[in-house]
């Protein structure tokens, strides 16, 4: 089976099987534009999604979860406070928290909220686009709306710097995806341009990351495996799609039916 470099003991395919067998409960507080996409891709990856954001509901629900995903795509004061409650509840229970800082840098409110969450909660994984990660790392980057206009001059270095500063695994997505634990950085080269032509694909990645770190533990390898599984599925979906409209349902199909042989044939990691 295809493996990452170094002393990686588990293949991507093995982790994919573990997630499918475990059916991890992933608690999301995410945005209302992509909430259904996130729920569906979580199911297709093998997980069980829950999308509650009521403060009264969160502590009990988090206690049952394998991971918590916080996505700031459609912010308001109620959900930003709920994210702090969910993150602190997860920290107390030893449950990993994934932060998707959607649109950070586009407005001061988004930037302040992301920084507040990072101050208040121990974040296990930060997954953003190249612009968002460059901004959080202080290495430059530009975000317009919720999309990256540009990343840092050296996205790989920015990813590693942010990982060192936060003690989190950091992933920056783009034409090449970079993942770092602060010491090692991996470049992931799977994917398709169609991922940029439909909304929600970045949010969907964070949901799959939640499934993988909730099942396989928080590591450079588990985060890179989650992203690689999604991007390989996207390549397969793109080969069968007529355009963006047919791509998204085929993407869900491909995530659900991905085989170890597909990973062996397609995985591109350096």
What does this structure look like?
It is built from eleven helices and ten strands. It is α/β, with parallel strands linked by helices and 270 residues long. It has one domain: 3-Layer(aba) Sandwich (UDP-N-acetylmuramoyl-L-alanine:D-glutamate ligase). Helix 2 runs parallel beside helix 10. Residues 145-151 have low confidence and may be disordered.
What's the SSE blueprint?
Elements (H helix, E strand, L loop, with lengths): L11 H11 L2 E5 L5 H11 L2 E3 L7 H6 L3 E5 L5 H17 L3 E4 L7 H13 L4 E5 H8 L4 E3 L2 E4 L4 H12 L2 E5 L3 E4 L4 E4 L12 H16 L3 H21 L3 H14 L2 H7 L4
Parallel strand pairs: 1-2, 1-3, 3-4, 4-5, 5-8
Antiparallel strand pairs: 6-7, 8-9, 9-10
Looking at this protein, list some descriptive labels.
single chain, 270 residues, alpha/beta, UDP-N-acetylmuramoyl-L-alanine:D-glutamate ligase, two-stranded antiparallel sheet, 11 helices, 16% strand, globular
Residue-averaged pLDDT, rounded?
91
For the CA atoms, what is the radius of gyration?
A: 17 Å
CATH class: Alpha Beta
How many domains is the backbone divided into? 1
Q: CATH H-level name... which superfamily?
A: Ribokinase
Series of H and E elements: HEHEHEHEHEHEEHEEEHHHH
SS element count, helices: 11
Fraction in helix: 40-55%
Overall shape: globular
């Amino acid at each position: 089976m295809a493996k990452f470099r170094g002393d990686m003991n588990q293949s991507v395919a093995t982790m994919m099987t573990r997630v499918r067998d475990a059916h991890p409960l992933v608690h999301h507080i995410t945005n209302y534009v992509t909430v259904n996409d996130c729920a569906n891709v979580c199911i297709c990856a093998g997980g069980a999604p829950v999308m509650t954001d009521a403060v009264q509901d969160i502590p009990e629900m988090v206690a049952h979860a394998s991971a918590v995903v916080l996505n700031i795509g459609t912010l308001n004061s109620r959900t930003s406070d709920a994210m702090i409650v969910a993150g602190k509840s997860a920290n107390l229970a030893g449950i990993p928290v994934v932060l998707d800082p959607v649109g950070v840098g586009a407005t001061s409110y988004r930037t302040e909220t992301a920084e507040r969450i990072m101050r208040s909660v121990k974040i296990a994984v930060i997954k953003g686009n190249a612009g968002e990660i460059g901004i959080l790392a202080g290495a430059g980057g530009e975000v317009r709306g919720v999309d990256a206009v540009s990343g840092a001059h050296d996205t790989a270095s920015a990813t590693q710097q942010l990982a060192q500063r936060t003690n989190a695994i950091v992933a920056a997505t783009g034409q090449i995806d970079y993942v770092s634990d602060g010491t090692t950085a991996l470049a992931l080269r799977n994917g398709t341009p169609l991922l940029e032509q439909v909304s929600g694909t970045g949010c969907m990645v964070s949901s799959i990351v939640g499934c993988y770190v909730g099942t396989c533990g928080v590591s450079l390898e588990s985060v890179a495996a989650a992203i690689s599984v999604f991007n390989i599925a996207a390549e397969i979906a793109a080969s069968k799609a007529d355009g963006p409209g047919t791509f998204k349902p085929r993407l869900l199909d491909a995530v659900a039916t991905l085989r170890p042989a597909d990973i062996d044939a397609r995985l591109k990691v350096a």
